[in-house]
Amino acid sequence: MAGAVAAAALLLPLLGAAPGEAAGGAPLRDAFARASAEYGVPQSVLLGVSYMESRWDAHNGAPSVAGGYGPMHLTDLSVALAEAPHHSHGEEDPRGDDARPMAAPEAGDLPVPEASELPAHLRTLPEAAGLTGRSVEELREDPAANVEGGAALLARTQRELGLPLSEDPADWYAAIARYSGADNSATAAMFAQDVFSVISAGQERVTDTGERIVLAADPRAEADPAQLERAGLKRLDQDGTECPPTVACEWIPAPYEHLGGDDPGDYGNHDLADRPADQSIDYIVVHSTEATWDTTLMLVQRPSYLAWHYSIRSSDGHIAQHIKARDVGWHAGNWYVNAHSIGVEQEAFLAQPDAWFTESLYRSSARLVKYLAKRHGVPLDRQHILSHDAIPGVTAANIPGMHTDPGPYWDWAHYFQLMGKPFHQNANPHGGVVTIRPDYATNQPVYTGCVSAGVACAPHGSSEVRLYSAPSEDAPLVRDIGLYPKNEGRTTIGVNDVGARASTGQQYVVADRAGDWTAIWYLGQKAWFRNPADRPAAVPTKGLVVTPKAGLASVPMYGRAYPEASAYPPGVPVQSLAPLPYRFEAGQRYVAGDRFRPEYFWNTTFGGRGTVVRGQEDYYQIQLGHRVAFVKVSDVDVVS
């Protein structure tokens, strides 16, 4: 994908908001106007580029997950990495299979690179400082100075390309493509086309400082892909990839290798299979890498490590595919989910002090997931597009070590809106099912542990609501006996503690109401969250609900949908069906997802494609707490 072919394929905007009227005088809007006049860059170009980088947010001077600062995402990655906290967010067995358990592999401590060792697109902030005469501190912390720095970089690039400092945004296509920092024409074209989509359609938004910014639609913003030839970017070889034409994607394979010795089970870092012929693909699991892009690629190419299907770069949305969809990756920490899922890793750190993700990452990930969902028949909802932190432990002992990414700062509402599946009300306001849906920007629960244990994280929008044991913020949080067994502590507000949190898009059954508070069934108890009518944190929706069959005091719940013992043929060891520690008691109800035929994928030998064991006793997936779980169909009744 390069040149005109790339641009034509990428001319597919994900949003088209109607433009609003010009806002009154405001500091950020005025900064765009001043920078446009001083450097000769059209204001619409500055606004379009900034929207794609940051959606015009300043983030109080904190870096993005790609080391970018401010509305123009000027990069200084060596500084960002030096200041970033490093977190362990789980100690799970990534394969998640009792038949072949493996210790969580160590990535190892990696040194922070020197600025001179970084590619140019990851140190644009010092360059902008030299062009503007402003200090790097100003460019990091002052949004107006940051906008000036971005304008200076765009103007310099335009001159280097031999193009005029024109008032027509169409003349800036190549400079915008170069601004992405991509080293290939396909990724650069994807970024430039998204910018032109925003400019031509118009956009408006209230920023994180409360300022309303408006970009009026400009019909002159017609892309000229021929300009890309001036950018001098390499062509990207996308042969062999399973990606939509609207993204830039390359094949960087994860090695499938025997690790030596006489043990046929000593191999890595994924399993061969023949999906969907041998088993269905039911989930797409969204992760955060907890590592930089270069480190992520290094690890996935390490035979003794683990592997997933796709990685997405935060700075420009570039995608690398590592495993074919037919094969099974080791990524979710639950073998049943691994066998039925595609793993998508996004370059990110869950708990930066002000964790934020670029619009390029959101859009590229949304395009990929929407494409994969359509190709494999996966519904676009939170019961099938699972966060890594929603994956259940396979047994009670595994629960405390399960991962917690992508964390509370990932904007699920924006993500699903980009996929064309927004969460909205579709039922009576007093109905029995709700979909969690707080306003991301203004929903800012306090978390701790981003920088150090017990210390409050910087205020930040969140997709999650906090759950209490009574309708009061003075009440204790609901208790997660899986995370804290045998009275060994209580749920906390730590950024990695998912024990008392419900996430945007997840559906729950209403258990009670009291004034501005709503209670849901959650981990076998009533869990309360603030849900005032003038600022709702959830919307009423329809859903399939299950409850224990009449006469049963409680029913067991499981972390996997495995077959009954009698289904296993000779040579395949029977897998345990130990229930999770939570109680699903009579009178309680949970929203159910799909009905699944029980399956177990037996594969422990290098080179083999395994055996799929199928049982007869079906399961329903339910939204038990923050994580999902499974119940046997024979144990529950279904309520519409």
Query: Which structural class do the helices and strands define?
Result: alpha+beta
As residue ranges, the low-confidence spans are 1-24
Estimate the helix proportion, in percent. 10-25%
Largest sheet: 6 strands, mixed
Strand content: 15-25%
- Supply the number of helical segments: 14
CATH topology (fold) name of the domain at 3-76 and 123-231? Lysozyme
Cα gyration radius (Å): 25 Å
**CATH architect. name of the domain at 3-76 and 123-231:** Orthogonal Bundle
CATH class of the domain at 3-76 and 123-231: Mainly Alpha
Average pLDDT taken over every residue: 90
Question: What strand line-up does the widest sheet have?
Answer: 5-11-10-13-9-14
Q: What is the 3D shape? A: globular
- How far apart are the first and last residues' alpha carbons, in Å? 47 Å
Number of strands: 30
Q: Could you characterize the architecture of this molecule?
A:
With 640 residues, the protein is of the alpha+beta class. It has a domain of 183 residues: Lysozyme. The protein has a six-stranded mixed beta sheet with strand order 5-11-10-13-9-14, with helices on both faces. It has a five-stranded antiparallel beta sheet with strand order 20-19-18-15-21, with no helix packed on it. A hairpin with an 8-residue loop joins strand 6 and strand 7. Helix 3 packs across helix 9. The radius of gyration is 25 Å and the shape is globular. 52% of the residues are buried.
